[in-house]
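Much of what follows relies on a compact textual record of a protein's fold. A complete example follows; check for yourself that the lines match position by position.
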Amino acid sequence: MLSYPFMQNALMAGAMIAVLCPIIGIFLVLRRYSMMGDTLAHSSLAGIAIGIVIGISPTISSVIFTTLAALLVEFLRDRFKRYAEILMSVVMTLSVGIAIILVSSGQANTNINQYLFGSILTVTRQDLLLVLGVTIVTAIAVLYYYNELIYTTFDEDGAHIISIKVKRINYIFALLMGLAISVSIRITGVLVISSLIVLPVASAMQFKKGFTKTLFLSIFIGLLDIMLGLVFSYILDSAPGGTIAIMSVITMLSSLLLNPSSK
């Protein structure tokens, strides 16, 4: 299995995504913004369709469109705090509408399925470098703004009181979300990305550890889900994205059933 270059690339890509997604996911889950992952995933699909239609790299167009969508959601959320969930639905619906129009027109149906369901086995060295770059940037940014992100996540009003620039932190986090999800789509697929963002974090939270321990545990669980998913997909000759998603659900259910502190 490891003798095949495509499996080596898949494992390296999976390892980076397993680090990247929980770093973003833990803040999303604690902010109760789990729907944000789906919103940006669908925005990414619209970006991909736009890239195919206008003749540029779908990955680049996806990064641009998804990042703009993340910043738009944050801008609207900041203006209309009471309607945050509705606004995310609006942005997601708009993105889905754009993607459907472009795909149904016949201009953007080239390889669109690999973005819907993921294509981790066709990852190239260029894809690996892009994911590596985003993972490093995200890790450095989260480390640099670690305390501010934690304060803002748990208590925005309190963060304002102690002079944290909450608006700037939220926009930086929105930018990181857009980057992380857009580069992960090519590997995990629109229909799977939210499971890798939310479920490893949710599984880790069942152990009721501190924030930092939960973050590292969620990364470990994400690695476990992706590695086992790839191994089983190779053995069973099944779709890697779907197998990884099922493995994430199994891990989540196991943490609920087997961890005494979660009962």
